UniProtKB/TrEMBL annotation:
Family annotation (InterPro entries): Palmitoyltrfase_DHHC (IPR001594), PFA4/ZDH16/20/ERF2-like (IPR039859)
Species of origin: Jaculus jaculus (Lesser Egyptian jerboa)
Residues of the Palmitoyltransferase DHHC domain: 137-280
Keyword Transferase: yes
Protein's cellular compartments: Cell membrane; Endoplasmic reticulum membrane; Golgi apparatus membrane
Topology within the bilayer: Multi-pass membrane protein
A GO term from the CC aspect: Golgi membrane
Residue ranges of the TM segments: 6-25, 55-71, 83-106, 182-209, 244-270
Protein name in UniProt: Palmitoyltransferase
Swiss-Prot/TrEMBL GO biological process terms: cytoplasmic pattern recognition receptor signaling pathway; negative regulation of cell migration; positive regulation of cell migration; protein localization to plasma membrane; protein targeting to membrane
Gene: Zdhhc4
Highest taxon of the lineage: Eukaryota
Length: 331
């Protein structure tokens, strides 16, 4: 019971911190957090609320500071004294350094803003499939012709070349020119969470072995002597080292979520799709469903990915993009 109460106390504490941070910034950010930063359009699609703010960037950095402060304060010194290899203990810091570098690059780098100056060059970058991207489409907001694979970001209020998505955690669009930074940022974030989880688990396992906890006994409610089982052991560790067990749970969940998302992004890179195209491709396919009759049959055409030209070529397109000053075409 005590275990449950303490666990709930931690959850409430973290939620309260998030609420206080949001209220401190502004009330609109609070609404964004409540709504998950997204709204559902009338046709069922989901889009981000059209406002740019740095609340999630700050939240991201605060969480990283808290995780690394706990790691440095309670885990690093103990593990070092217990003979853990320096390499394994320093690895989370190295990954953090690389991660922060690419985090700021993703935040600061122009994702591929389409302007009057580069409009004509970018119009030739990709073929128009005439299903998802039409040759003569024009952005009514920017008053520019829309290159294939581009999209107007409602949050940043600009058209972005090879638009992938708008990421609230970096407060920037992910497009042709910063997708590579985003992928390295995501990879190092996943690796740092996984490394942190491994070190935390090793720390607790070491404690169990050193303290011989499996040999310990306790007296249950009915007065009988019981040996420590796994559930009791977890409760004991949580009550003895609450912050470390909570940190372990947090980084384990985070590692799985990030690894899943990273796999999805790598799949998109390997097949030369953007998140925007992947979502709209599904939506376009749904127009063929006999239960969905939003478009007349003449407008419903099969979407095919015409941009994939093999794994190496697809990787090169993301990691060695054609930069704005270049006159070359991407194909
Ligand atoms: Zn636009
Ligand atoms: Zn954006």
């Amino acid at each position: 019971m005590e275990f449950l109460i303490l666990f709930l106390f931690y959850l409430v504490f973290i939620l309260l911190c998030v609420v206080v941070i949001c209220i401190c910034f502004n009330t609109h950010s609070w609404k964004v957090l409540i709504l998950g930063g997204a709204q559902v359009l009338s046709d069922g699609r989901v889009c981000v609320l059209p406002s740019s703010n740095r609340i999630f960037v700050v939240l991201h950095l605060i969480l990283q500071v808290l995780v690394y402060a706990e790691y440095s304060w309670e885990i690093f010194g103990y593990c070092y004294d217990q003979g853990f290899t320096v390499c394994s203990l320093v690895m989370p810091y190295l990954l953090l350094t690389v991660n922060l570098g690419f985090f700021f690059l993703t935040c600061m780098e122009d994702p591929g803003t389409i302007t009057k100056a580069n409009e004509s060059v970018l119009l030739q970058a990709y073929e128009f499939d005439e299903v998802m991207f039409w040759r003569n489409a024009k952005c009514p907001t920017c008053d520019l012709r829309k290159p294939a694979r581009s999209k107007h970001c409602r949050v940043c209020d600009r058209c972005v070349h090879r638009f992938d998505h708008h990421c609230i955690w970096v407060n920037n669009c992910i497009g042709a020119w910063n997708a590579r930074y985003f992928l390295i940022y995501l990879s190092t974030l996943t690796a740092s969470a996984a490394t942190m989880a491994i070190v935390c688990a090793a720390f607790l396992a070491h404690l169990v072995v050193v303290l011989d906890l499996y040999q310990e006994t306790y007296i249950d409610d009915s007065g009988h002597v019981q040996a420590f089982d796994t559930v009791f052991l977890i409760q004991y560790l949580f009550l003895s080292f609450p912050r470390i067990v909570f940190l372990l749970g947090f980084v384990v969940v985070l590692s799985f979520l990030l690894a899943g998302y990273l796999c999805f992004m790598l799949y998109l890179v390997a097949t030369n799709q953007t998140t925007n195209e992947w979502c709209r491709g599904d939506w376009a396919c749904s127009q063929h469903c006999p239960l969905v009759t939003r478009l007349p049959p003449a407008e419903a055409q099969v979407y095919q990915n015409i941009h994939s030209h093999g794994l190496w070529s697809n990787l090169r397109e993301v990691f060695l993009p054609v930069l704005p000053c270049s006159e070359k075409k991407t194909q």
